[in-house]
Write a structure and sequence with these properties.
Shape: globular
Domain Tr-type G: 22-240
Keywords: GTP-binding, Mitochondrion, Nucleotide-binding, Protein biosynthesis
Protein name: Tr-type G domain-containing protein
GO molecular function: GTP binding; GTPase activity
GO cellular component, one term: mitochondrion
Strand order of the largest sheet: 11-10-16-7-8-15-12-13
Largest sheet: 8 strands, antiparallel
Bound molecules: guanosine-5'-diphosphate
Helix content: 25-40%
Radius of gyration: 20 Å
Distance between the termini: 45 Å
Order of helices and strands: EHHEEHEHEHHHEHHEEEEEEEEEEH
């Protein structure tokens, strides 16, 4: 792996057209504190060419730590979601709250993800919060990749101390290799399995939540972060891979989105981050809040890149956008394109187990 040339130019990492829905990956990073979520996020932005300089976490100058600068410039660098390109994919990395106490916030965020990367600290093994985020991902039936980070640490004492934890780690992830091996052996008995077939087999098993691909590496190195991004593209779901009973099925092409984060911006006022599940959203469109059965007027519509919001005129299903102008829409609320679909949606949603208006 080499640092891509695109780091030199402002390219947002060769971003795919937002209409190519099967190239979209809406994913979050879940981790115990200190496992390396910030470092990994920042390095993903760097290696994808989205930011030109790497910060060090302990210097307090990573993209996600620039809160003061963010306020001064009136934009959101560290956003509720950041969009960038990798290997022909459009990645929407959605920020999951670090503090597990904000359970409602975590739940609202998990509802808009299609998949997740769970980061473990290789020198610490399975930690308390690893288990919490793991079971949250289970609850939301999220296909996931495990990234065992900090493997550059050659601290033997530390590793020895963590042996017990590592055994738990292996147990947690044990079903992975077995199922993968089974798939491959089955295929091998038919013909020699090539890398493409193997990847397809892993993808199917990952999407059906039968396996969790595990990558070991270090977010300090491109050989950790770049293969991790490849794996996100290869194994995590696109919005088309969502289960049948999802909002996509329910709304059948008419506009429906879920708000998952509201940020207050000095210049723009409330900025509402939404995941579009179905249909398109136009700039300045009127939307209807399903819970409140109320119309709301959107203003600007934007996509959040690492260091700026870029205005867009229209956004299609599967994408993440932020809009201004919504006053009564809260995180977790669903919005639709017209009153009648808001009305029928409420009824349908009440019948549908697991989907809450
Ligand atoms: P977060 O709390 O999960 O966001 O973790 P951070 O990204 O802030 O990382 C916590 C600490 O671990 C920081 O001091 C990082 O520099 C360090 N760290 C992160 N990734 C690695 C890695 O791959 N190897 C080593 N040795 N340290 C790492």
């Amino acid at each position: 792996y080499h640092i891509s040339q695109s780091c030199q130019v402002r390219s947002y990492g060769n971003l795919q057209n937002s209409d190519v829905i099967d190239k979209i990956r809406n994913f979050g990073i879940l981790a115990h504190i200190d496992a390396g979520k910030t470092t990994t996020t920042e390095r993903m932005l760097f290696y994808s060419g989205t930011i030109k300089q790497m910060g060090e976490v302990h210097h307090g100058n990573t993209v996600t730590d620039f809160m003061d600068q963010e306020r001064n410039r009136g934009i959101t660098i560290t956003s509720a979601a950041v969009t960038f390109g990798w290997n022909g994919h459009r990645f929407n990395l959605i920020d999951t709250p670090g503090h597990i106490d904000f359970t409602m916030e975590v739940e609202q965020t998990l509802q808009v993800l299609d998949g997740a990367v769970v980061i473990l600290d290789g020198s610490a093994g399975v930690e308390a919060q690893t288990c919490t985020v793991w079971s949250q991902a289970d609850k939301h039936e999220l296909p996931r990749i495990a990234f065992v980070n900090k493997m550059d640490r050659a601290d033997e004492d530390l590793l020895e101390m963590a042996v017990e934890e590592k055994i738990r780690l292996v147990e947690l992830l044990a079903d992975v290799d077995e199922i993968l091996a089974e798939e491959v052996i089955q295929r091998e008995s038919l013909s020699n399995v090539g890398p493409a077939e193997l990847k397809a087999a892993i993808r199917r098993a990952t999407l059906s939540r039968l396996c969790v691909p595990v990558l070991c590496g270090s977010s300090y190195h491109n050989v950790g972060v770049q293969p991790l991004m490849d794996a996100v593209g290869l194994y995590l779901p696109s919005p088309l891979d969502r289960p049948k009973d999802s909002l996509v099925e329910l709304f059948k092409g008419s506009f429906c989105a879920r708000a998952f984060k509201i940020r207050h911006d000095e210049h723009k006022g409330a900025v509402t981050f939404m995941r579009i599940f179905s249909g398109n959203l136009q700039k300045g469109q009127k939307v209807f809040n399903v819970r409140q059965q109320k119309a709301e007027q959107t203003g600007q519509m934007m996509v959040a890149y690492a260091d700026e919001f870029q205005e867009v005129q229209e956004m299609s299903s599967g994408n993440i956008v932020s809009v201004t102008g919504l006053k009564d829409t809260f995180a977790g609320d669903l919005v639709t394109g017209n009153l009648s679909s808001a009305n029928s949606a409420k009824e349908k949603l009440m019948k549908l187990k697991g989907i809450d208006a």
